[in-house]
Design brief:
By secondary structure, the protein is of the alpha/beta class. The chain has 4 domains: about 45 residues, no CATH class; about 170 residues, Alpha-D-Glucose-1,6-Bisphosphate, subunit A, domain 3 (Alpha-D-Glucose-1,6-Bisphosphate, Chain A, domain 3, 3-Layer(aba) Sandwich); about 90 residues, Alpha-D-Glucose-1,6-Bisphosphate, subunit A, domain 3 (Alpha-D-Glucose-1,6-Bisphosphate, Chain A, domain 3); about 120 residues, TATA-Binding Protein. It is built from 19 helices and 21 strands. The strands form 4 sheets. The protein has a 6-stranded mixed sheet, with helices on both faces. Strand 12, helix 14 and strand 13 form a beta-alpha-beta unit. Helix 10 packs across helix 11. The radius of gyration is 24 Å and the shape is globular. The two termini are about 30 Å apart.
Amino acid sequence: MSPETLSRARKFLADDPDPETRAELEALVAKAERGDGAAGADLEDRFAGTLSFGTAGLRGRVEAGSARMNRSVVIQASWGVGTYLLEQGPQFGVDARKRGVVVAFDGRLSSRRFAEDTCAVLAALGIPALVFIDPVPTPVCAFTVEHLGAAAGVMVTASHNPPADNGYKVYWANAAQITPPHDTGIAACIARAPAATRVERVAPPDAAASGLRRIVSDDVERAYLDAVGALAWHRAPAGPAPLRIVYTAMHGVGHRLALRALAHAGFVGVVDEPTQADPDGTFRTVAFPNPEEKGALDRAIAVAKESAADLILANDPDADRLAVAVLSGGGYRLLSGNEIGMLVCADALDHMPLPAGARQKLVITTIVSSTFLSRMARDKGAAYAETLTGFKWIANKAMERAAHGEHFVCGYEEALGYSVGPLVKDKDGIGAAVRFAELARALKAQGKTVLDRLDELFIAHGLSHAVNWSVTMPGATGMERIKASMAALRRDPPVALDGTAVARVDDLARGDHPADVVVLHTADGTRLTVRPSGTEPKIKMYCELVARVAARAELGPARERLEAAGQRIKAELNARLGL
């Protein structure tokens, strides 16, 4: 352990307002000073820089350290957010002291405490905190910023990260996550923040008495549910819904609102997975509360088999993502994020009404999602846009294009994030669940399945097949390996993928909004995208391969060919980068 690390740890101890993290860090420092190598390495990792705003704000493991999530980091971040709003907000027409800041939190163990610290700091700056008294889904926080006309929003959540993590997501007054110049401006203000113990905070009773702490009423949730219901374009059949659904909240905060939203759409008797229904920050039935992870839906699948369900809907812990499994043969097939996005976007393009004054429907996806959406939009005469990863880019692009008469009907990213229409300017796992259930119900009424519809789309617009993978590299050493891998790829990119020449290499670090992403394109339409994760210690690879098919009988053999080619490309790249 270096003397600099020990000095940073002691400074953190002196400035930490939380007795729990102080005790934790004191014990760790004592071990390191006695020569415990593991403790010293742990300290080096905890103080290897500071958390910075990434794809989704701050996110990290909850424990003492400048590179971790803890009360000191949250207090300083809140001071930075509030200070930026006061200093820079007026030039963007934002009066924080008049409009206030929405503060919401999910069901993780530390979330309420972090939210209370946020409220206390904002109140001390004279900014009203518009606070939820119970955990809520992330899309409700985003909706509330716009619904109440707030200056900004803070959502304390780590979404689908492991149980030990938490995070801090910031929305601007337009109800979308912050983008430049606000992210860099807030980061600069955080860097100016006093030590956490010297940041003034106002206790809840005093803040409430002075009008600087206001509880968000239940009317906001009702307005959200009404708005989700109003978007429906498939008429609900009379009588019992011809669709059986199992739902799981994955120990998160989606259960109550998701079941209410589905009931409003005519889905009565939805069966929920009972052991995962209530918020539980320990996530006791899943090692990793991400519905994409292998085994995460095992319990929901068991319940679905018992109830002969047609459809499984799963939200992640903050309910901004949606996973779907459909009945297939004697079991259930988990749809990919791209497949769900294709289906919902196609349905929105076919059926969502175009409002008066709009000239064209618009769909948006990201650079790592399937190219299928671009082909379908072209074939249907719709507008199409592509953004960097992160829903903040999708939301802001939708608002930008609305000024040109394009009506945003659907956007998605392959990591199970969807937004239907302009209702929520972020991922909305609850709204997407309702829209998907309505699609499945309409298809069943026609004698079709979701998989039938997916095949129809591939035949009409071309088959896209994804082979995606990632490599986890935790800690400071892992971050250096990820950086080295990206540098090696830039310095010496492959000249061919599975024997086909690479026709173009796009390095997005050189774009208008620089991003640590490298994209390789081959002449036959294969695209390989490589980037570090914005929220986890991973390097992520997305390989998409395409083929034209004329009939359903051709789909199976075509998928097998593309899968084999994708696996060969995976092996080639892993060997090249030493992964």
